[in-house]
Amino acid sequence: MKKITSLFCSIMLLTMLTVNLTTAQAQGGDSLYKRLGGYDALAAVTDDFIGRLATDKQVGRFFVGASQSSQKRIRQLVIDFLCNATGGPCVYTGRDMKTVHTGLKITEKDWDISVKHLTATLDKFNVPAKEKGEVLTAISGLKKDIVGQ
Ligand code: HEM
Fold first, then answer.
1. What one-character-per-residue DSSP string does 19-51 give?
2. Which atom of ligand 1 lies nearest, measured to the CA of 111?
C-alpha cells in the first residue's frame, strides 16, 4: 500500500511538473523544450551533465560499475524524462524518480554538487537566465524523491 501511495505521489509530481512547464505552451508561448533548443540541445546538455557527475570525485561513485549499455540506457531515459517534463514530444518509459533513486542514499551534499554541475552545464550552453531558472526550479521539485532515499 505504501509503495502504491508513493508511486501515485511520484506520478502526480511528474504530472504537476509537466503541467507547470507546459503552461506557457498552453498560453501560446513556446514550450521550455523548444526554448532550450529542442531534442539535440537537450541531449547535449544531458551528456555534459552526466559527464560532469560521472567524473566528480564525490558523486562519481554512483556511476561506477555500470556497463556501457547500462550507461546508454540511463542517458536515454534522462533525455526522455527531461524532454517529456519540459513539454517536448518524448514519452518517458523509465521508473519514477523515487523508485529509481531509492537505495542509492544520495545526500544533501551530493545533491548540491549535482545542482552546481547542472548550473555549469546550462552556463556552458549559454542557456538564458529565464530558461535556466525554469530548469533549476523544476529540478528542485524532484529533490525530495531523489535525496535521502
Ligand atoms: C537532477 C535530477 C535528476 C534526474 C531528472 C534524474 C533522472 C534519472 C533517470 C530518468 C534515471 C533512469 C530511470 C530508470 O532507469 O528507469 C536515473 C537513474 C540514475 N540516477 Fe538520477 N536523476 C537525477 C539526479 C540524480 C543524482 C543527483 C544522482 C547521484 C548523484 C543520480 C544518480 C542516478 C543513478 C546512479 C542512476 C542509475 C540507477 C540504476 O540504474 O539503478 N541521479 N536518474
1. HHHHHHHHTTSPPHHHHTTHHHHHHHHHHHHHH
2. 27
Collapsed DSSP state (helix, strand, coil) of residue 106: strand
| Tally of domains within the chain | 1
Which domain, by its residues, includes 115?
Answer: 2-146
The model's pTM:
0.86
- Arithmetic mean of pLDDT, 120-140: 98
- CA of residue 92 to ligand 1 center, whole Å: 13
pLDDT at residue 34, as a whole number? 98
CATH number, domain containing residue 8: 1.10.490.10
Contact 78 CB / ligand 1 (< 6 Å):
yes
33 pocket-lining for ligand 1 (C-beta < 6 Å)? no
